[in-house]
Amino acid sequence: MPPTLASLVHHSALKLTVRAGRERLDTPVRWVHASELTDPVPYMEGGELLLITALKLDAEDADAMRRYVKRLVGAGVAGLGFAVGVHYEKIPEALADAAAEEGLPLLEVPRRTPFLAISKAVSAAIAADQYRAVTAGFAAQRELTRQALSDGPEGLLSALASQVDGWAALYDASGAVVATAPEWAGRRAARITADVERLRDRPAPASSVVGGETEDGADGEDRVELHSLGTGRRARGALAVGTASAPGTAERYAVHSAIALLTLVTERSRSLYGAEQRIGAAVLRMLLAGQSDHARGVAGDLYGGLLDAPYRMMLAEAASASAGRARARGGADADPDSGSRSGSGSGSGEVDADGVEAASVVLAEAGGDLVGGFVEVAEAAAARSGEAVLVVPDGERRLVVLAADGGAVVTACTRYAHTVGIARSGSEQGTDEDELVVGVSAPAGPVAAGAAYKQAEQALSVARRRGRVLVEHEEVATGSVVPLLADDAVRAFADGLLRALHEHDATGRGDLVASLRAWLSRHGQWDAAAADLGVHRHTLRYRMRRVEEILGRSLDDPDVRMELWLALKATAAVSASAGE
Fold this sequence. Notes:
Elements: H1 5-9, E1 17-20, E2 31-34, E3 48-52, H2 62-74, E4 79-83, H3 93-102, E5 106-109, H4 115-164, E6 167-172, E7 177-181, H5 185-190, H6 193-200, E8 207-213, E9 219-229, E10 237-243, H7 249-266, H8 270-288, H9 292-299, E11 311-319, H10 321-330, H11 353-366, H12 370-385, E12 389-393, E13 398-404, H13 408-426, E14 435-440, H14 449-466, E15 470-472, H15 473-478, H16 488-506, H17 512-521, H18 526-533, H19 537-551, H20 558-579
Parallel strand pairs: 2-3, 3-4, 4-5, 14-15
Antiparallel strand pairs: 1-5, 6-7, 6-10, 8-9, 9-10, 11-13, 11-14, 12-13
Helix pairs in contact: 2-3, 4-7, 8-9, 11-13, 12-13, 16-20, 17-18, 17-19, 18-19
C-alpha cells in the first residue's frame, strides 16, 4: 500500500510529532511538496504532504490561518508539516487551532530533520509499493495463465475475481453472459448487458466504467469496468470486472492480463479458422454427395453429434437492395399470410414504431454486412448453448449453415432474420446496402443432405421472389400456391390472357370475367354457378361461349381451364394488394 501520514510518524529517523488531525493519519501521501507561498494551492494536485517554515506567513493571525488551512483542505492536501526552530520555535497556536478545526493533520518537523529526508522517505515508500504491485501483478499473471490453461475461461474468471476481491463476467459477441465468477455474480452481470451492447458498438479495443459513485456523490452498488475482447473491427466478446472501488496497481495488472488471455481464447488465429472452414467444406461436400459415413470420419468430434441428429440446412445470401425492394413491391405485399410466419421480411405486416426503432439497431450493428451478422449470431448461439454448428461459405455472397433442428442456433438465426425484416420495413428505401435473404430446409437426417440443400435453395428462391428475409421450406411445401403467383412474369401472363375479357366487360355488354370465375370455381356446374351469379343457366352458357370466342380457346381443355384459373387468382392477389 502507498505511504500514509501514520507511516511517516512512525518512521524512527524522521522524529515527526502530531499536533492536530490525529484521526486522519491513515490518509495516503501521494507526494511531498515544500512551498513558502502564501497560496500554494494552484501548484498542488491533491494528496501531497505540504512542508513549510512559514517564512511568508503570519502564522499567528487566526483569521489568516483559518483561510490558509481551508484552502489547503479544499485542494485535497493530505497533511501539513511545519518546521520548528527556523522562523518559529514552535507551531503557532493560530495554525494549530485552524488545523484542528478543519481536521487537517498537522505534523511538527524538528530542526534536525531536513525536508529532503521526508521527501526521500516518501519516495522510497512509493517506489517500494510500486515494486510490490508489479511483483504481485506478475504473480497474478502467472496464476491467471495457469488457470486459463488448466480450466479455461471459467478458471481464469475465478482467479481474476479472487485477485481483485470482486467479481468477473465474460460475454460473447452478442452481449450474452457466458460465464461468471463467483456464481452469485450472474444476476449482477445480466443487469448490465445493455452497457455491454453499447460498448460493442464502439471500435475495439474499448472500455467503460459503470456503477460506482452516483451523480450526487453517494456510493453505488459497485464499480464495474467493461473491456472489449478481440482484435478485429467488431469485438468477439467483453469482460466485466466488478469491485468495491477503483482497482490498485496490482489489480490493474491482473485485469490487463485477463484481457490479453481472454482475447487469445476468444480470437482464433486466421490459420486455425481457415483450417476449420476447409474441414467444414469437405464435410459438407461429402454429405451432399451422399457419403455420410466418410463425412463422419473426417469431422471426428469437431461437430459432435450434429451429423447424426435431425438438422436444418440454412442458405443465407446477400441480395442486391434495389432488387430486393423491387421484389418486395411486386410480391411480398401480395402475400396475405406473410405477416404471420416466422422470419417474415418487408412484407410482414404492420410493425409498431418502437419495434422498427429497436430492430434498426441490428442494421447499424452489422455495419452493412448482414450475412456476417448472421454468422456471428449462429456462432454465438452455439457457444451459449453448447450446440455444434457447421458454417461453410458458398461463394462470396452466400453461406451454408447446418444446425440441430429445434435447437438454439436455428431459433437465434430465425429471430435475427425476423428482426432484420422489421428493421428493413422501417428503414429508408434509398439505401444501397445488400440485404439478407435466407432459405431454411425441412428437418433432415444425415443421408438426406442433398435433399435438404435443394429444399433450402427452393425456400431461398421464394424468399427472393417475395421480398422476404427468411422462408422455411414447410411454407413452400404446405402453403397455398397463390402467393407464388405474385411474380412479374405471372402477372404479365395473366394480363395478356385476360385483357380481351376485361376490355369486353368495360363496354358494359356483360360480366364475362366474373362469370368465368364463378363457372371455374363450381367445376363447370351450370346450375350452381348460375345461382352464385344470380342469372339463368342459359345466360351463363351464352357468356361462356362468348369467352371461348373472344379467347379463341376451348373451355373443354383442362389445360386452358387451369391457366385461366391461375390467371384469375393472380389478378385477385394483385387487387388485394392494391386494396391494402
